Every structure is written in C-alpha cells, then in structure tokens.
# Entry
Amino acid sequence: MKYILTPPAKLEGNIKLPSSKSISNRALILNALAYSDLPIDNLSDCDDTSVLVKALYSDSNTFDVGAAGTSMRFLTAFLSKIVGEWTITGSERMKQRPIKLLVDALNSLGAKIEYVEKEGFPPLRIFGSALKGGAIELDGGVSSQYISALMMIAPTMQEGLKLTLTGNIISMPYINLTLQMMEEFGVKAYWKENTITIPAQTYQAAPYSVEGDWSGASYWYEMLALCGKGEVFLQDLRKNSYQGDAKITELFKQLGIKTTYEKKGVRLTVNGQLPPRMQYNFVDQPDMAQTFVVTCCLLNVPFRFSGLQSLKIKETDRIAALINEMKKVGFVLEETGTGLLEWKGERCTPAKDSTIDTYEDHRMAMAFAPIAFKLPISINNPQVVSKSYPSFWEDLKAVGFTIKEK
# Structure
C-alpha cells in the first residue's frame, strides 16, 4: 500500500498530539516496579506502548515486542528481576539490533540471560531472580535505552547500582528524563560527572499523567516551515518538559518557525527567517535528525549534522535510508565520517517516481510526508506511523491534506 499526498495551500489547525512514547514506557515500568494500581493518565496508544502494556499485564511467559526497541530493552531488564523463566523476541529487524551490552551488564549484576538464536541479539531466554547489583561500567555511546533500563531496576537490586559511563555519552536528556521520573516515583539517584549512583530503596506508588510528544510535534514544525503559510496549535506540550526533543523550538526558530507557549499547548507561526547554513550535533536528539535533514534540503539550507552514530541501530540504518530517499527527490547527501551527515548543496535529477520507502521506520514516513508542500510525493507502507503516532494521517486530513490510497 502507498499514500499519494496532496497538501493544502495553507496550513492551519488545532492538533491533539499523541502522548509521549518515551514517558509512557518509563511510567509503565516504574508503575510496575512500585506495585501500583494507580492509573497512568493520557497513556500513549502507539504500538511500542501497547506492546509493553500487553507484556506487563500478560499471563504468558513469552513476549513478542515486534519492532519496539524501547520495549525490548526495558523488558529485558525488568524481567531479569521477576522470578520465573521468560522468553522475549521481536521482528526480523529486532533480531538484527544488538543487545549484548545490556545482557552482559545484567548478567554481571546477577541476572541469568541466554541467547536463543544468534549471540548478542534477540530473542532472549531470561531466568528471573533477585539481582545482587553492585558497580559496573557501560559504554555511554551506544544507546541511552540500555542505561535507562538498568537505572529503573537499580533500586530493587540488593546492593543498588553504581554505573560508570565510559566514552562519549549520547542522548543525555533521555537519561535525565529517567532520573526525573524515578524521583517522581519516590527514588533518589545521584549523577556526578560520569557516574550514576542509585542506592537500594523502594518505589512509591504515585498518580501520573503523560504529556504530549515533542517528537511528534516536530513534523508539524516541519510542515509549517515547508508550507511557509499558516498557523498551527499543538495541544498538551509543556514549556519545561523533560523531553530532549523539546529542543526543536530553538532549532526551528532558525528555520523560520516561532513558538509561543500558551496555557494548553504551543502555537506555531512563520517568521520567515532562514540561515545560510545549519550545523548541529544531534547526539541528544537523534530521533530528530530525519526531520531536519528533510527540512533543510527542501528549504535549500546546506547542513553539517553530527552525533548521528546511533541512527545505524534504529528501526533501520537511518543514515543509509536518508541518503537513498533524498536522492529520489534530487538531493545528494554525504556521510563524511562516523555520525556525520552533510548536504553541501549538491543536487541530482529526481527519480521519475518519487515514492518514498519507509524501511519499517515510522520516522521515515513522517519526516518525508511534508515534502508534499514542495514536490509531488507518495509514501510506501504508510501504516508504519502506528509505532509512535497512530493518528498521523488522520491529523493530516483534518488540516486539508488529500490522501489517496494506491
């Protein structure tokens, strides 16, 4: 299936964004660790969160998380401390995504986890039991989800956890988000320089409400930037958000979009300013790279983006996918080093059929859809947006997009 997109002449709308997937998934794990029966308000309805809800409330000892990377990492740690024998698997792509770093760390803390198929990759067999804990080192440059997974179960370990992060730490806002949420569930942790110390202690049940998703908001910023006309109100976004992707307010200001905070969300308007070139290190906001690559190219703003090393182990190799798909619409990107992607203004002849492949990656579909404001575009396998933003296409129709299915 593919969608052929025709945009409105002007972008205007009031959008209820999906709830934050990152916050929802952490809240579910913390709620379970607190043995709480209090509800989590405004929980995300995306695939990744639904998978986690199903697993946490299941009577089964076998879980298939599909393509949900966060759920795979969080559940691996969570199940390692729950007495019983568990098996966790996922999609074919999930079986290619490394998990050895997390498994080795958990095993060193007293867990017993085995590989069912290929060494270092899911599926996993987990023999859950009480964990001793202690002091370990972990490479901070691979995935913050490994770190968050360990941190959340750390208070339940007999000796707590002293976690020293080595190398360049990526996605630090996600680690901060985890620490802040743990504190809201009654746990104290200490982060000094590159060491996180979490003493053994008990989580406390607490009511929790999930805020709107800044990652989902980014596509509306992109649409307004590429349309150049209109005004959009995004509900449920908070000014002092723990979400690292809230940084987009500053980044899109450079690309012509003004953010005004109001009581129930944010209002986006066009200020029309563009830089001659953009340079940014996305190490703390890797999920935003696709959005800014597409936006800059279509606004004719050359760029040099760094800090993208984690993109290769996402739902797809996002750097390779960006290079392939941007070429279809006439832009030549260069991977100029580890975690580096550049567009120096080089163009090529667009493909006759500018149908974008999504690589089973929700962010490919959503980042490329706004190109419709500049060029004819269609999207293959558009249903992948259900991973984080199930109502994305319906929201586009609500603001005047025509979407034809072929």
